[in-house]
Amino acid sequence: MSEASETLVNLLIVEDPSLPGALVCNAECAARAHGGRPLSLKNKEKDKDLPQQDVPNLAKNDDPALPEQDRGVTRIEALYLVFGKGWKIYFLWGSIGFIAFVYSLASMTTYTYLAFATSAFSTHALLGTISVITSIMASVTQPFIAKVADLTSRPWAIAFSILFYCLGYIVVAASKSVQDVAGGEVLYTIGNTGISLLTTILIGDITNLQNRGLANGLFSAPYIVTCFIAGYISDGISAYSENGWRWGYGMFVILMPVCISPALFVLFWADRRATKIGALSLASSSEARRKVLEGAGAGAEPVLSIVQKGLKVARQIDLIGLLLLGFAWGCLLTPFTISTTAKGGYRNASLIAMFVVAGVLFIMFTIWEWKFAIHPVMPDFCSIAIDFGYYFSGYISDTYMSSWVYVIKDWSDKDYNYFLNILTVGLCLFSIPAGLVMKYTHRYKWVQIFGLIVRFVGMGLMYAATKNPSDLILVWSRILVSIGGGCSVISSQVAVQASVPHQDMAIASANLALWTQVGGSIGSAIAAAIWTNKLPYYLTQNLGDTLNSTQIEDIYSSIVTARLAEPRDKVIDAYQSTMYYLLLPAFILSIVPIIAAIVTTNFYLDNKHNAIEDKVIEIRPAEETEVDALQRRA
């Protein structure tokens, strides 16, 4: 191997306090000399006015113990060679903010529409079933999306997600049956999950540890504004009517791709520019090693076929483990949501078969993860246990929360929307001061513990609302839960991303999201099982003397009908009695995340990209960056 081939390129990322979180990859070349001399700029026509400069070797030696980087990680590091201080880096952050705004607007309006979409087909009880299916889909697809981002690039993965997002909402908006609604929700969930995950990954790519919590909090800040806009939009299109929800879904088929296009433009432009000037292959030491080895003749690594690459990716994301896990949870949880409509209930042969298959699949999953998985999907992070418990208890209480409040309170559509948005707005509002505390204390553990304790108190207040559903108790319970959630959620994100090298950050983030979604799926299934068994019972008990079975079924099947039904006090009592069985276990289970938080590792949050590698983050002057990029082209 020649001296030039033996010399590797190393990555050095440094921080500039003038722009927190901005990142540029300063890939300083080691000397790739002709005759042992340091490499200088060649006298090409377009570069003839630039001075002849040696390239300094400022980087540390590559650490062979760290994992080899995928192309997508290399690309996100390389593209910042074309940025630098100036309009380009600000345009990138501005476009991320634009995504945050439209994503928050969609979240604040559309999540309430599903209850009305199912009610339009007189199948409101299937809300829990759809929630379970979409939660499982969201969980098992996240490692795939993360790996797409690693193997291709961040912008291509975002474009892939937008396609599914729009396709899903088109199907829902044009649905002619509840099956269409469910199918569209599954497609939308893939896209929506991708957008959410990839923006989290992108922020993690370009921020250091001490600023990452604050950056994630600021990304959520638009929710504070869109909360007040969402109510007017829902009112304006009569979203809570029989068919108004269709317009609510359809508008984002246009808005979402339009608002994400600036970010895609700047990311694709930067990617192309980095490739054109020769920065791509020099942005990562692992990538450089791969280039050297591929050109080293007999010692080079073999080129993998498409099938071999596919098998390699399958091992990296633990494809078999994901499939076993997804099908196991699906078979276990779905029967709980359909037991009341299945002939014979839990004695139905199909439901029994699903339980048996679920048990077999869980045994197979355990054996696979224990004995055979090279990269197990089973978590080893306390943060994942925290968020699993958080979402588990949260989905038990929240799956039918909006339906319960809509029926028992005589609020206007706008006020109803404001109440539902308290949690989301509070999560986003209080995550910003939580991020500031992390930035200046350089720790996150006690921020998270404080938040989880406050959330526990809020869950207790919500349970109390089953006896006294006053406006004061309902509103304050949601405020306290939102304060706690704002502190906890970003703490988990920072902790998980700090615990792995950059190469593994996307998969670690996906694993966090996977297990939180699994927790949510279990919570939704339990909520659906309780709702579909208890609500018909209490409606029949309270209304059986005055209404026939068909009328009671109509009330059960539609929250719009239930809100107008008489005698109203008895309908409300049935809903109150049902929610008691949802809010009590949710309150008790909310203690579990606190226990997990106490034993979590308290990483020091400094100016490094993560707690594993010695990568520090900085943005440099644009002129210096351009010269460096041209040096790499030489």
Automatic annotation (TrEMBL):
Subcellular location: Membrane
Membrane topology: Multi-pass membrane protein
Organism expressing this protein natively: Saitozyma podzolica
GO cellular component, as recorded: plasma membrane
Membrane-crossing segments per the record: 89-106, 156-174, 186-206, 213-234, 246-270, 319-338, 350-370, 416-437, 449-466, 472-491, 512-531, 579-605
Domain Major facilitator superfamily (MFS) profile: residue ranges: 90-608
Protein name from the UniProt record: Major facilitator superfamily (MFS) profile domain-containing protein
Main location: membrane
Region Disordered, residue ranges: 38-66
Entries under Gene3D superfamilies matching the protein: MFS general substrate transporter like domains
Alphabetical UniProt keywords: Membrane, Transmembrane, Transmembrane helix
Entries under InterPro entries matching the protein: MFS, MFS_dom, MFS_trans_sf
Biased composition (Basic and acidic residues): 42-51
MF term (GO), any: transmembrane transporter activity
